[in-house]
Amino acid sequence: MSRKKTLPSIAKPFAHVHSMLAVVGFTESSAKEGTVYELSFRDPVTLKEYPFRVYAHTLENGMTHINLNEAAFAARGYVPDPVADAADDIMVDLAQYLENGPVKKKSASTSIEHAMNGQMAGNEEDVKRLGHVMAKMPTNAQVRENGMIPDPIQ
User: Fold this and answer.
1) Is 25 left (phi over 0), alpha (psi -120 to 50) or beta?
2) 59-68 residue pLDDT tens
3) Rounded to two decimals, what is the model's pTM?
């Protein structure tokens, strides 16, 4: 597969590499040396699938290295142009994701990092409000008495 653009060789922490490849749709599998990530592309005309592979290697410093120019279709031979073009587009996006993370849209609302801080309540008022809400919730025994099944234990 010929590339229109030279893609970078990237070394990042494994968690970053793995999550970015998963965001794009790749699945992980082990190989003799390193890890192989695979994504299947389907030809819209023949409906034949073409598995595309990206190879990752762990460096001595613990970082995960990916040379995006080594990525290729698993089967040697003819690959339809629409499939090759789709793989090229994915690889350009993947390079951007690995270097910078996914593009984040600016929002006027509360950021996810701020909202998803691992706490149920942000201040004392919220704690009191949640306490009143929880006090009104039926217990598992009361739920069973009403012929219902309680939520599973988390």
Assistant:
1) left
2) 888 888 888 8
3) 0.58
Q: In whole angstroms, give the CA distance from residue 86 to residue 73.
A: 12
Tens digits of residue pLDDT in 37-89: 999 988 888 888 999 999 888 888 888 888 888 888 988 888 888 888 888 88
Give CA angle at 95 (92, 97), nearest 5°: 110
Tell me what percent of the chain is helix, strand and coil, each rounded to the nearest 5: 35, 20, 45
* The pair of three-digit structure tokens given for residue 37, joined into one six-digit string: 């990530």
CB 18 within 8 A of CB 30: no
State the number of CA atoms in the 13 A half-sphere of 15 facing the CB: 0
Instruction: Compute the chain's Rg from CA coordinates.
Output: 24
DSSP code of residue 118 = S
Give residue 104's pLDDT band: very low, low, confident or very high (50, 70, 90).
Answer: low
Backbone angles phi, psi at 152, to 5 degrees: -70, 155
CA gap 25, 37 in Å, rounded? 9
Angle at 123 (CA atoms; ends 118, 136), nearest 5 degrees = 85
